[in-house]
Design brief:
four-stranded antiparallel β-sheet; alpha+beta; about 160 residues; cell membrane
Length: about 160
């Protein structure tokens, strides 16, 4: 006696896949993805740095917007000892990834030792100006802040 199996095609005499075979193939595919995905980040070494640089630029834009909206100056402080950035008026800071360093230059007077560097945004949209350099893993990105307009530019 010959067993007939159902198939999705128009040919009723052809053989198809059983549910068990499909489940086995899907299980193997899921296991392969589970092993491969953590390794995917290693293929893109600069992805985390670029992502964090874009987040920092967005935080600078947020500081400018808050200064304009509230009518009060807003300062973005870069605290290298605690490895975090913090907006004035916010209790919680934004932590830096482990392999990332931030530096600030061109903000006017020379920085005072033991005082965290910072950028000030004023209610008229202007800022103290400067350049934030985000570096790590042999790469770096610059975020420029124009002192006159407060415009934030992310350099790829």
């Amino acid at each position: 006696m010959k067993l007939r199996m159902w198939s999705a095609g128009s040919n009723a005499t052809g053989f198809g896949f059983t549910l068990l075979e499909l489940l086995v193939v899907l299980t193997i595919a899921v296991l392969a993805l589970a092993v491969a995905l953590p390794r995917f980040a290693a293929l893109l070494p600069g992805a985390e740095l670029k992502s964090y640089s874009r987040q920092t630029a967005a935080l600078l834009r947020l500081a400018r917007s808050q200064a304009i909206a509230t009518g009060e100056p807003v300062t973005l402080t870069l605290n290298s000892e605690q490895r975090q950035t913090q907006l004035s008026g916010q209790a919680r800071g934004h932590a830096w990834p482990a392999a990332v360093t931030l530096s600030l230059s061109g903000t006017g007077p020379l920085p005072v030792p033991d005082v965290p560097a910072g950028l000030v945004f004023y209610p008229d949209g202007a800022s103290s100006g400067g350049t934030v350099r985000v570096a790590g893993n042999g790469r770096h990105y610059r975020i420029r802040v124009d002192w006159l307009t407060g415009r934030v530019v992310f350099d790829d």
